[in-house]
Design brief:
The structure holds two protein chains of two kinds. By secondary structure, chain A is of the alpha/beta class. In chain A, about 35% of the residues lie in helices and about 25% in strands. In chain A, strand 5 and strand 6 form a beta hairpin. Classes of the chains: A alpha/beta, B alpha+beta. The complex binds flavin-adenine dinucleotide and iron/sulfur cluster (2 copies). One iron/sulfur cluster binds next to helix 4 of chain B.
Chain lengths: ~450, ~100
């Protein structure tokens, strides 16, 4: 790729920007707003720069925010966050074009504070969180693209260039919260090669439906909501699907391996259309009118593919650091972004107080991450992305499971019922699964997820 | 259960764009002519890469999601010049 955004700008000694901050945070997504909020609270002079006309304008996700990490940042956030519904029911669906097998869980515990997951629109959620940083004293600067890092002769990041006239800013620390494409982490030389292999494309449709219709179809009441993750709905392309309920709409979409998509004959919106036609999904989305079509990349590789998290004068957080957890039954990124942003803010504040903003002075960041869910979960699930995207998981297991369950529930009188062991062997064979492989995946799955 | 899928134009008309003066992405059709994969054509979620009769690509930047799919997939040096639109321009999701 040729991009004017590929090289940092050399700043000579004593050269000053138009304005100076303790910290410049780039990107007002969940990571950036959490970082700026934490720093502003600590009394630092912080700029939060966003290229969209408002925070959230550029951001897309499936639909559920897991708010536990917010407890620490904004106590009783549920009283004020722009929530659509509270997730009280979660399903994981294995499917083939004509079958589906669902694990369906619901609990009343999740319909009360402190709640578990909430559906929300990013245009509202991100704007709300950025507003919190602003209230705490951060300077939110929208409609402004950071086009380059500014580095001194030692290679230490000392600020950013923006696309505003006279738009060079000085900073003792820059926090890159610029999302999956992170040109800043790339410019800083922190980002590893091979991004394409572990990136997926998410495409999503928001379909409007009357609130009561949603409640009836999904078996919920009031502002209770449902979260469905799917496997086996993306044909020959490794990936998965999702369906979430908002108040007066549902969000339905797929996540697709980029390389396979590039080679495929099918376009992304056609794969969503297939999913909407699936016999288990069609009755849920029928009649929904498209109110927005959207697309965004996801860093899918997890722990193994993270960049270096700190350089001299710079920290990398959230999707920019591949901290999104995309592991089948989980699709969590907003909470990891908020967590890493918050810890980056703390580490930057610590570095400022010791007057050492080198990579070593900023090393507190990694420590904080390791002691929290952010790196702990990612290390534990380091093998999950590969297993999930494997050919067996994608192309064979969903069909094998569906066939096995179909045979288990199919009454075969007068022939006696087959034993489960035989059914398993038979369905495995029919889908080209060797039991040894299955056992191996079960063990590695248990190691990853257990 | 079948219901008609809307046209791609209708689909894109549900998305708000503040179209900037500057083309933030440029595609060099001469380079595309030697490309055998044309990966961008199926993958671009906004369907902005249109193959031309002479084996090149016709590209219009106006209704772009700024997702990054095209530059990651394209392996021809120089075919795509990719930047973000100027501050405030480009896609503005209402839901996201
Ligand atoms: C289809 C899909 C479904 C998903 N589903 C879920 C889900 O259900 N739950 C969940 O928790 N996560 C989900 N995720 C993941 C989640 O969206 C991300 O992990 C999360 O948004 C990461 O937050 P972030 O702050 O790191 O980055 P982003 O949210 O991407 O924010 C980056 C910000 O930086 C700005 N920016 C970028 N470059 C610049 C620049 N040069 N100058 C100025 N500003 C810049 C952008 O405009 C943006 O506002 C999903 C993702 C996708 C694509
Ligand atoms: S943009 Fe890249 S992938 Fe697309 S046709 Fe041109 S060279 Fe090929
Ligand atoms: S950035 Fe995404 S939407 Fe825009 S042209 Fe490239 S692939 Fe298409």
């Amino acid at each position: 790729m040729a991009s004017p955004m590929s090289a940092p700008i050399r700043v000579s000694h004593g050269e000053r920007g138009a304005a100076g901050f303790d910290v410049v945070v780039v990107g007002a997504g969940p990571a950036g707003s959490a970082a700026a909020l934490e720093l502003a609270r600590a009394g630092h002079h912080v700029a939060l720069i966003e290229r969209g006309a408002f925070p959230g304008a550029k951001n897309v996700y499936g639909g559920v925010v897991y708010g536990r990490i917010l407890d620490e940042l904004i106590p009783e956030w549920w009283e004020q966050a722009p929530v659509q519904r509270w997730v009280t029911r979660r399903q994981t669906m294995m499917m083939t074009p004509t079958q589906s097998m669902t694990v369906d869980f619901r609990t009343d515990a999740w319909r009360e504070p402190p709640y578990n997951g909430a559906t929300a629109h990013r245009a509202q959620f991100d704007a709300w969180l950025a507003g919190k940083a602003e209230e705490a004293g951060a300077e939110l600067i929208t409609s402004t693209v950071v086009t380059a890092l500014r580095v001194d002769e030692r290679g230490h990041t000392v600020g950013v260039r923006t696309d505003r006239a006279d738009g060079d800013l000085d900073a003792r620390v820059v926090i890159a919260c610029d999302g999956v494409n992170s040109f800043l982490a790339k410019q800083a030389g922190l980002y590893p090669e091979g991004q394409l292999e572990h990136t997926t494309l998410g495409v999503k449709e928001t379909l409007s439906l009357p609130r009561e219709t949603i409640n009836e179809r999904f078996g919920v009441r009031g502002t209770d909501g449902v979260d469905i993750e799917m496997l086996g709905c993306t044909g020959a392309i490794p990936g998965g699907g999702f369906l979430y309920t908002n108040l007066d709409s549902v969000s339905v979409g797929v996540v697709l391996d980029l390389t396979a998509l590039g080679k495929a004959k099918k376009r992304p919106e056609e794969i969503v259309a297939d999913l909407k036609r699936h016999p288990s999904i069609a009755p849920l989305v029928r009649g929904g009118e498209l109110v927005e079509y959207a697309a965004h990349l996801i860093p899918e590789g997890g722990y193994q593919t993270m960049p270096k998290l700190a350089g001299d004068g710079i920290l990398v957080t959230g999707d920019a650091a591949a901290m999104c957890l995309a592991a089948g039954i989980w699709l969590e990124g907003v909470n990891f972004a908020i967590g890493s942003g918050m810890y980056a803010g703390r580490a930057a504040a610590h570095a400022l107080s010791t007057n050492d903003t080198s990579a070593r002075g900023l090393s507190e960041y990694r420590k904080l991450l390791r002691n929290s869910f952010v790196l702990a979960d990612h290390r534990k699930l380091a093998g999950a992305p590969k297993l999930l995207m494997s050919e067996r998981m994608q192309q064979r297991y969903p069909g094998m499971v569906c066939d096995m369950v179909e045979n288990l529930f199919q009454v075969t009188n007068p022939t006696p019922k087959p034993g489960i062991g035989r059914l398993l062997r038979r369905s495995a064979k029919a889908h080209g699964v060797r039991l040894r492989e299955l056992a191996r995946d079960a063990v590695s799955g248990f190691r990853s997820y257990g | 259960m079948h219901y008609p899928e809307s046209s791609f134009e209708d689909r894109m008309s549900t998305v708000d764009f503040r179209v900037g003066e500057r083309a933030h992405i440029e595609v060099d059709s001469d380079i595309c002519r030697s490309c055998t994969t044309k990966a961008c054509v199926t993958a671009c979620p906004a369907n902005l890469f249109v193959p031309t009769g002479d084996g090149g690509i016709l590209f219009n930047y106006e209704q772009c999601f700024e997702c990054g799919t095209c530059y990651l997939l394209c392996d021809k040096e120089g075919a795509i010049t990719w930047t973000y639109p100027d501050g405030g321009d480009g896609v503005a999701f209402r839901k996201g």
